[in-house]
């Protein structure tokens, strides 16, 4: 027959548990303090690095992207505010503020031609043309960071992925799965026809026509009825090369 532990045994067991708990809390606190100390050291080293390579960060987009990755690893956001150490040291907040304004201007200027949907690649090319006088090269990473800061303006500015392309949306139009599939299909040659959508996506004629007409009404498509075969072509400037030429003329 097993004997139950006495009061003294229970008290000893409780005391042991308390000691283990306190020991665990002390170890956790030591680890937390050590991590904080390491992060403080990393941040100090990051500031020294930024001072040393200030010009490279401003002028070299690849170097700038790597710098942002380093910042993210230690919990520093140089774009969080235009005030403070990073803004004074690098002027990096002003850089992305100015780039964001230029992105808005390009999107507004090209909207009559693409319906408010432009490929990230075309956007970067048009921005590069505008910024020739500044002589500061920008990358897709720069554009993505600037666009992320435009979210404070509300709905309308965001990056969406369609197939292999990233598209920048500057209007609050919601694209459903059918619209995305048509845009992805159009990437091959810049346009689609109702017959092609039916055949390639295995859709009914009504489904294909409805989706294409919606995209046309939203200003995302342009129609071309001038071909001998008599088939209407739906062109999508946001995924075809013509968008860069049209956009360049509009700026």
From TrEMBL:
InterPro entries hit by this protein: ESCRT-2_cplx_Snf8 (IPR016689), Snf8/Vps36 (IPR040608), WH-like_DNA-bd_sf (IPR036388), WH_DNA-bd_sf (IPR036390)
Pfam families in alphabetical order: EAP30
Record-level GO BP terms: protein transport to vacuole involved in ubiquitin-dependent protein catabolic process via the multivesicular body sorting pathway
Keywords, ordered alphabetically: Protein transport, Transport
This protein's record includes keyword Glycoprotein: no
Top-level division of the source organism's lineage: Eukaryota
Signal peptide start and end residues: none
Protein's UniProt keywords contain Protein transport: yes
One annotated Gene Ontology cellular component of this protein: ESCRT II complex
Description of how the protein assembles with itself and partners: Component of the endosomal sorting complex required for transport II (ESCRT-II).
PANTHER family found in the cross-reference section: EAP30 SUBUNIT OF ELL COMPLEX, VACUOLAR-SORTING PROTEIN SNF8
Family named by the database record: Belongs to the SNF8 family.
Functional summary from the UniProt entry: Component of the endosomal sorting complex required for transport II (ESCRT-II), which is required for multivesicular body (MVB) formation and sorting of endosomal cargo proteins into MVBs.
Name of protein: Vacuolar protein sorting-associated protein
Gene: VP22-1
């Amino acid at each position: 027959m097993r004997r139950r532990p006495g009061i003294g045994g229970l008290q000893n067991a409780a005391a042991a548990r308390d000691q283990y708990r306190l020991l665990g809390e002390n170890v956790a606190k030591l680890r937390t303090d050590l991590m904080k100390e390491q992060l403080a050291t990393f941040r100090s080293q990051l500031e020294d690095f930024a001072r040393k390579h200030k010009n490279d960060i401003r002028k070299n987009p690849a170097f700038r992207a790597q710098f942002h990755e380093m910042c993210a690893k230690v919990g520093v956001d140089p774009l969080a505010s235009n005030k403070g150490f990073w803004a004074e040291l690098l002027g990096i907040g002003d850089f992305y503020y100015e780039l964001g304004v230029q992105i808005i201007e390009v999107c507004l200027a090209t909207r009559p031609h693409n319906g408010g949907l432009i490929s990230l690649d075309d956007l970067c090319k048009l921005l590069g043309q505008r910024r020739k006088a500044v002589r500061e090269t920008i990358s897709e990473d720069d554009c993505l960071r600037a666009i992320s800061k435009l979210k404070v303006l509300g709905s309308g500015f965001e990056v969406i992925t369609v197939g292999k392309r990233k598209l920048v949306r500057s209007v609050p139009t919601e694209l459903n799965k059918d619209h995305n599939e048509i845009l992805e299909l159009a990437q091959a040659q810049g346009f689609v026809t109702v017959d092609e959508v039916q055949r390639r996506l295995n859709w009914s004629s009504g489904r294909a026509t409805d989706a294409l007409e919606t995209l046309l009404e939203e200003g995302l498509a342009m129609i071309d009825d001038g071909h001998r075969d008599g088939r209407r072509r739906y062109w999508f400037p946001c995924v075809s090369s013509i968008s860069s030429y049209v956009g360049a003329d509009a700026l």
